């Protein structure tokens, strides 16, 4: 199990001198009691409500009371306040500015599901305001942001859970996959391939007025000031009700200014499980090689030369040299999921299946009793939100802790940097810096727009 999983409240007290380590808001009560007893329920707020914001909120209403919502889109905010009351009977106060949520003394924890470029600022300020934090993946937009969050978690003693829910949910199939590897069912790992899907570029997207109710300047926040852009065609299915081509709702994932494309979106899930299976949660690769890639616009010195089209990669094959010289391939080709290959056998896992000869052999040779729980570090939580609240009670860091997440995400960030620079990168996982490449190292951090710096 990841060593940071047991970074306990005692450790925080030793690290911080006891100055700011948090008390137990629920004493030693079991999290399951919170479902039945109002007196045992923590008070939560959600910041960023569209799509995943509502998903994590709805999973958590059985354990917690939501007293506040914040969103920069008044239409989204109003709709979800009504939805919360209709589905759970809870009444949340709505805010445009998340800082008003952090100012409230009655809020125990916040759930953050904003676009990625807001994650670090809100997470840090929430912890400094005395709140525990559940933040959607990927936790950061840069590697240095990850280091800052680690520092603040230690400094404040707050709990910080990352929303990489494959560690807890999905019928535990990813836990079973790791249990198969630990039980020697494929022998020694020789290669891991993470299929994370490709993407598409966009037409030229014109600048237009932002929709009524959307505070565009606040949506941009730490990112640099640019025009709102959108085409009339609307998106169908997941994320519907928004433009198909835009630099805002849903499609922000296709812009490096706000996200990391598919590399950070799906990579934060599958590279996470692959890194966990390799036992590399405390380290990372020593080399990243961009074997092939396609960018939808021209780049110069690592930056897109135009600002009116999607700019994150559409296709790619990246090789990460992991500890023990085990190759991890991150590719846009093939099935979405993870292929583990070993000296004895191989198998594939994704959200729909766990397949291969080692899986078939479980019918006659099942895993040892408790093998899945051993991977998880104890009984598997009811869902990812439940694990977060269990950690709030115990003051031990959760299954998706910031240290292992950041180490995994460094692989994804470095893959994106290697694509932007168009060259191989050598990485020092101890110093956490790119070796002998000052130009590439400049991408380990970013400058926040004036007025949106992190308030320390």
Give structural notes.
By secondary structure, the protein is α/β, with parallel strands linked by helices. It has two domains: 3-168 and 381-401, NAD(P)-binding Rossmann-like Domain (Rossmann fold); 194-336 and 405-444, no CATH class. The chain is built from 15 helices and 17 strands. It has helices at residues 9-16, 52-60, 74-88, 98-102, 119-128, 143-156, 173-182, 216-220, 261-265, 267-277, 357-360, 371-376, 384-394, 402-421, 438-441; strands at residues 43-47, 65-70, 93-95, 109-112, 132-135, 160-162, 189-195, 287-294, 299-300, 303-304, 315-322, 326-331, 337-342, 346-349, 354-355, 425-428, 433-434. The strands form three sheets. The protein has a nine-stranded mixed sheet with strand order 15-14-13-7-12-11-8-16-17. It has a six-stranded parallel sheet with strand order 3-2-1-4-5-6, sandwiched between helices. Strands 9-10 form a two-stranded antiparallel ribbon. Strand 14 (346-349) and strand 15 (354-355) form a beta hairpin. Mean pLDDT is 92; it is low at 1-30. Keywords: Glycosidase, Hydrolase. One of its GO terms (molecular function) is alpha-N-acetylgalactosaminidase activity.
């Amino acid at each position: 199990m990841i060593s940071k999983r047991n970074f306990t409240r005692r450790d925080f007290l030793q690290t911080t001198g006891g100055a700011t380590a948090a008390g137990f808001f629920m004493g030693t009560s079991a999290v399951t009691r919170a479902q039945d007893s109002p007196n045992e329920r923590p008070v939560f707020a959600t910041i960023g409500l569209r799509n995943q914001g509502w998903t994590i909120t709805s999973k958590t209403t059985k354990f917690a009371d939501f007293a506040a919502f914040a969103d920069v889109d008044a239409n989204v905010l109003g709709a979800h306040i009504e939805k919360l009351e209709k589905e759970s009977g809870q009444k949340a106060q709505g805010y445009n500015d998340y800082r008003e949520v952090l100012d409230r003394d009655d809020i125990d924890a916040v759930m953050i599901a904003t676009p990625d470029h807001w994650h670090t600022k809100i997470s840090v300020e929430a912890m400094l305001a005395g709140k525990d934090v559940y933040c959607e993946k990927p936790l950061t937009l840069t590697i240095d942001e990850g280091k800052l969050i680690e520092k603040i978690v230690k400094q404040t003693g707050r709990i910080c859970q990352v929303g990489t829910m494959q560690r807890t949910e999905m019928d535990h199939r990813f836990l079973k996959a790791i249990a198969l590897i630990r039980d020697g069912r494929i022998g020694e790992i020789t290669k891991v391939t993470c299929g994370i899907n490709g993407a598409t570029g966009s037409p030229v997207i014109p600048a237009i007025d932002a929709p009524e109710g959307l505070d565009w300047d606040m949506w941009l926040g730490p990112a640099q000031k640019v025009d709102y852009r959108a085409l009339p065609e609307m998106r169908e299915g997941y994320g519907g009700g928004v433009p198909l081509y835009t630099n805002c709702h849903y499609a922000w994932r296709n812009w490096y200014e706000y996200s990391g494309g598919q590399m950070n979106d799906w990579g934060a899930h599958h590279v996470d499980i692959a890194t966990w299976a390799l036992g590399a949660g405390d380290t990372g690769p020593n080399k990243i090689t961009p074997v092939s890639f396609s960018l939808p616009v021209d780049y110069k010195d690592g930056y897109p030369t135009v600002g009116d089209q999607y700019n994150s990669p559409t296709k790619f094959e990246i090789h990460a040299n992991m500890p023990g010289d085990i190759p991890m391939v991150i590719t846009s080709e093939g099935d979405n999921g993870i292929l583990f290959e070993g000296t004895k056998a191989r198998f594939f896992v994704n959200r729909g299946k766990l397949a291969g000869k080692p899986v078939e052999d479980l019918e006659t040779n099942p895993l040892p009793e408790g093998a899945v729980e051993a991977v998880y570090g104890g009984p598997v939580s009811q869902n990812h939100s439940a694990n977060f609240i269990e950690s709030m009670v115990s003051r031990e860091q959760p299954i998706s802790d910031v240290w292992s997440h950041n180490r995994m995400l460094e692989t994804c960030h470095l893959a994106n940097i290697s694509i932007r620079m168009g060259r191989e990168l050598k990485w020092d996982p101890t110093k956490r810096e790119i070796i002998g490449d000052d130009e590439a190292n400049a991408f380990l951090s970013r400058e926040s727009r004036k007025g949106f710096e992190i308030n320390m």
